[in-house]
Amino acid sequence: MRNLCVKADIISTVEFNHTGELLATGDKGGRVVIFQREQEVCTEEQAPAVVLGSVLQVLKFNLPSFQSKNQVHRRGEYNVYSTFQSHEPEFDYLKSLEIEEKINKIRWLPQQNAAYFLLSTNDKTVKLWKVSERDKRPEGYNLKDEEGRLRDPATITTLRVPVLRPMDLMVEATPRRVFANAHTYHINSISVNSDYETYMSADDLRINLWNFEITNQSFNIVDIKPANMEELTEVITAAEFHPHHCNTFVYSSSKGTIRLCDMRASALCDRHTKFFEEPEDPSNRSFFSEIISSISDVKFSHSGRYIMTRDYLTVKVWDLNMENRPIETYQVHDYLRSKLCSLYENDCIFDKFECVWNGSDSVIMTGSYNNFFRMFDRNTKRDVTLEASRENSKPRAILKPRKVCVGGKRRKDEISVDSLDFSKKILHTAWHPSENIIAVAATNNLYIFQDKVN
Predict the structure, then answer these.
(1) Considering only CA atoms, which of 29, 41, 17, 23 is closest in space to residue 453?
(2) Phi and psi dihedrals of 389, rounded to 5?
(3) 419: left (phi over 0), alpha (psi -120 to 50) or beta
(4) Residues forming beta bridges with residue 132, ordered by sequence position
(5) CA distance 376 to 305
(6) Cα separation of 427 and 250, whole Å?
(7) Burial level of 431, CB count in 10 A (0-12/13-18/19+)?
(8) How many other β-carbons are positioned within 10 Å of the β-carbon of residue 301?
(9) Out of 219, 241, 302, 379, which could bridge 191 as a Cys pair, Cβ 3.0 to 4.6 Å?
């Protein structure tokens, strides 16, 4: 089957909910697709793929394990649960500016009742969505007939008690709040606070704090816009709340720095509490140094002790108690250092790769080119390169590690750095909060990999 990729179908964000039972994806067409994990145990005879239209495919393969062989795993396929249009394209007539419908980020709220809630954002507007199930419908209205038309009151001679009748299960997505008109620049991050009453949204120059109940007002907590825009030297690239302390958050910049802020210190966090920056090695200085040092993603560990950042070539882990250098640095694709000139010419050097922790903070994952993604075990220091591809993967087959050959004689199972396809890139990934299950977005395909059966 030919893989026809329409721009609107390219996946732009992936996110598991807090239990891992649901997985949401957003795309450039403004749609949100939610997958639900089936409760039944999955057998080898079951079909491992779900196709939504002809462009979104979910495949499941076995994942080389970094975890204990004695661990018990739950099995269950992820199938489409709900699909809805979250954002529509808009036009700002005052600025003559088109506002894309592309979903930049999705963040789940912890489940409090039978319904699910999630935040989704495009460049300008954040929306709070309620996703709920309905399997009963009321019948026996007094003022309406069975088709919903109003009845003539003169014809109503008796009163009846409406009853609830069973119906086919229907999943409804309804927008509960719309948070708009607070950002001049493009929103790059949203993060739900641990108090679950507030969240923040960040654009290139400002970070705003919102209350979930108030849509017409937000509080500006970071503003790095200079009085003269010609003096602008850096922009905000990502921001996230601490997982446990509701007063603490971090944001990263295009200069490769991370600032930790404490909202108890002042209402406007112009002065950071901690400043994380690695001194530059003068011997590695080049024309591209500033571009490749720009941080594209920042994530707190689940424990809250560490921060992980992703720049163009590396993933770094920082200890909150040590600001002068990272405690761990992992080379994602160091073989591209010699290709930076051509990557600059085709704009790939500006790609924004994300990074994720596993549930125990022991393994980290991030994407690369040629549909490769990398995993690093922090304890054993092992790393592996895997490929998300329809062509060389069969359902329930074990993924084989891939290796990139830089120069000299190429082995049979290696791929030359000159043969890498830079149009195929893994920018967005997600890790199940408690199990060894990952979701990888490869252009318009979503792959779900699980740990191998022990």
Answers:
(1) 41
(2) -150, 140
(3) alpha
(4) 172
(5) 18
(6) 21
(7) buried
(8) 19
(9) 241
Nearest of 86, 82, 283 to residue 177 by alpha carbon? 86
Give CA–CA dist 248/245, Å, rounded. Answer: 6
Distance CA 103, CA 85 (A): 10
Angle at 376 between CA 187 and CA 422, to 5 degrees: 60
Q: What is the SS3 assignment for 252?
A: strand
Q: What is the pLDDT along the chain (454 residues), one digit of tens a residue?
A: 344 568 889 999 999 999 999 999 999 999 999 999 987 544 433 333 333 322 334 555 566 655 444 444 445 689 999 999 999 998 888 778 889 999 999 999 999 999 999 999 999 999 999 999 887 777 778 888 777 788 888 888 888 888 888 877 788 999 999 999 999 999 999 999 999 999 999 999 999 999 999 999 999 999 999 999 999 999 999 999 999 999 999 999 999 999 999 999 988 998 899 999 998 878 777 889 999 999 999 999 999 999 999 999 999 999 999 999 999 999 999 999 999 999 999 999 999 999 999 999 999 999 999 999 999 999 999 999 999 987 755 666 778 888 988 876 777 778 889 889 999 999 999 999 999 999 999 989 999 988 765 4
Q: How far apart are CA 56 and CA 61, in angstroms?
A: 16
Map tokens 């003539």 to a residue: 152
Look at the alpha carbons of 445, 170, 196, 101 in this order and tell me if their dihedral is positive or negative: positive
Which residue type occupies 183? H
Which residues touch 58 (CB under 8 Å, ≥6 apart)? 35, 49, 50, 52, 78, 79, 446, 447, 448
Among residues 65, 73, 62, 74, which one has the least CA distance to residue 396?
62
CB contact at 8 A, 101 and 10: no
Contacts for 159-165 with beta carbons within 8 Å, 24 or more apart? 162/138, 163/138, 163/139, 164/136, 164/137, 164/138, 164/139, 165/136, 165/137, 165/138, 165/139
How far apart CA 405 and CA 415 sit, in angstroms, is 6
Q: Which helix (H) or strand (E) holds 386?
A: strand 383-387
What gap in Å lies between CA 200 and CA 179, rounded to an integer? Answer: 11
Give the Cα-Cα-Cα angle 179, 185, 186 (nearest 5 degrees).
75
Nearest Cα residue to 437 out of 67, 41, 152, 165: 67
DSSP string, 327-354: SEEEES-GGGGGGHHHHHHTTGGG----
